Amino acid sequence: MSKVLLKVSDLHAFYGESHILHGINFEIREGELVTLLGRNGAGRTTTLRAILGLTGKRTGSVQVEGVETIDMPTNKIARLGLGYCPEERGIFSTLSCEENLMLPPKVGPGGMSVEEIYEMFPNLKERRNSPGTRLSGGEQQMLAMARILRSGAKVLLLDEITEGLAPVIVQTLGRVIRALKEKGLTIILVEQNFRFAAPLADRHYVIEHGQIVATVNKDELAEKTAMLNEFLGV
Predict the structure, then answer these.
(1) What is the dihedral of CA 177, 182, 188, 193, to 10 degrees?
(2) How does strand 186-190 pair with strand 203-208?
(3) CA geometry: angle at 203 spanning 171 and 116, to 5°?
(4) Could you say which architecture CATH assigns to the domain 4-232?
(5) Which of 47, 144, 157, 228 has its CA 20 to 30 A from that of 88?
């Protein structure tokens, strides 16, 4: 079996006085894609942010390739090979598409070249001189993903990458994620669009009230779809 890249154990996270995560436990092996599913407010995004130390107080254990990170600052955690694509995308409006692409620091070897990025995202090549604010929502999402691929990150944390996008862009992102998985990247996907996530993932974790309440492997999807629909309010 491939090695465990990320192991989360009894993870609690707080925003101020608010206790959001109540003992999250899961792991992801090299080359796997897992999803964090659940209704809005369940704690999925907070789980990604807590892995990176972006919440307030957090307790428990978050190990990256066996290295304990619970007391590390975010910049050191990222340099262990984690790349985060937040829901708000974080595109710099005064910089061109290509300038945005060149910003991230290297966190590991094997980052994609600009040429490889443009091959994967032809739209970005066409718009490389356009200001960040002139890009469409779909192009901004492609740029947000492309930036972390430049960094050499081994584990990609992707938050709601399909939200609000046209179906044709969603299909493109699906092809990109399949290609990244084939390259051996490890991916955690927070996703509301279960139809998009279902065929991509090796395993689904369902979060409710800050806890994982169900784990569904890809070969169990057919028999557990009704249960998932109930949890997700589909």
Answers:
(1) 40
(2) unpaired
(3) 45
(4) 3-Layer(aba) Sandwich (3.40)
(5) 228
Beta strand extents in 131-192 (DSSP E only): 155-159, 186-190
Distance spanning both ends of the chain, measured CA to CA: 34
Q: pLDDT digits over 102-140, tens only?
A: 988 888 888 899 999 999 999 999 999 999 889 999 999
3 SS3 class: coil
What's the pLDDT score for residue 87?
A: 87
Contact, 93 vs 133, CB < 8 A? yes
User: Among residues 234, 165, 232, 156, which one has the least CA distance to residue 200?
Assistant: 156
How many residues in the chain? 234
The residue type at 66 = G
Radius of gyration for the chain, computed over Cα atoms and rounded to the nearest angstrom: 17
d(CA 122, CA 116): 10
Q: Which residues of the chain have pLDDT under 70?
A: 234
Task: Judge whether 36 and 27 are in contact, CB under 8 Å.
Answer: no
- Which residues, 6+ apart, have CB-to-CB distance to 68 below 8 Å? 61, 62
Residue 3 contacts residue 65 (beta carbons within 8 Å): yes
Q: How far is CA 179 from CA 29, 174, 183, 194, 211, in A?
A: 18, 9, 6, 19, 31
Q: d(Cα 25, Cα 11) in Å, to the nearest integer? A: 7
Query: Do strands 33-37 and 203-208 pair parallel, antiparallel, or not at all (unpaired)?
Result: parallel
Q: Which pLDDT score is estimated for 107? A: 83
Structure confidence at residue 234 (pLDDT): 55
Cα(147)–Cα(130) distance, rounded to whole angstroms?
16
